[in-house]
Design goal:
It comes from Sphingomonas sanxanigenens DSM 19645 = NX02. InterPro entries: DUF6438 (IPR045497). This protein has 4 helices and 7 strands. The chain has 180 residues and is an alpha+beta fold. The termini are far apart. A 7-stranded mixed β-sheet has the order 4-3-2-1-6-7-5, with helices on one face. It has one domain: 2-Layer Sandwich (Mago nashi protein), CATH 3.30.1560. Helix 2 runs antiparallel to helix 3.
Amino acid sequence: MIHASLRSLALAPALALGGALALGACAADTSGIGSTPAPAAGETIAVSVGPCFGFCPVYQVSIAPDGAVTFTGERHTEVIGERKAAAGAATYKAVARDLAPFRPVDGTTARVDCEAAITDTSTYTITWTDTAGRQTVATHQSRCSGGPGKALDAVLGTLPEQLGIAGWAKQVTRPGVSRG
């Protein structure tokens, strides 16, 4: 007969493993985030800012390795439509470096974790496209309270100024244009 305390000790590893597996089944796959170095030469980095429940700016911006910036304002931005600017290769390198910790494994899509996400905020999609057209994508729900998502919020908050599009991306509410 095994003493009750010894029996519970023998079961503890199995219970811990089972609990870890159960929790892991609920977690999102973010294993690829931050495990890849900065983008390879020639990759274009694009950031798409999606709608929120209110009047948040909705736009897309990309930067090429030579620093060429393309902005397309879609809704609630000062500029609607496409504009181009030159930010320089040094800006591209800085943006690539700043976003590298959030970059998934090449050719995959992963979500950047938030400790607590607010569901009616803008969604960001960051896409690295190599010269062969292969895409690596990170998605993110803005305004995280903690975790990697909060750090990514800080990086994304600097991008409009860094890319020279702050005036174009500025939030504007126009009469007759609905939320979202």
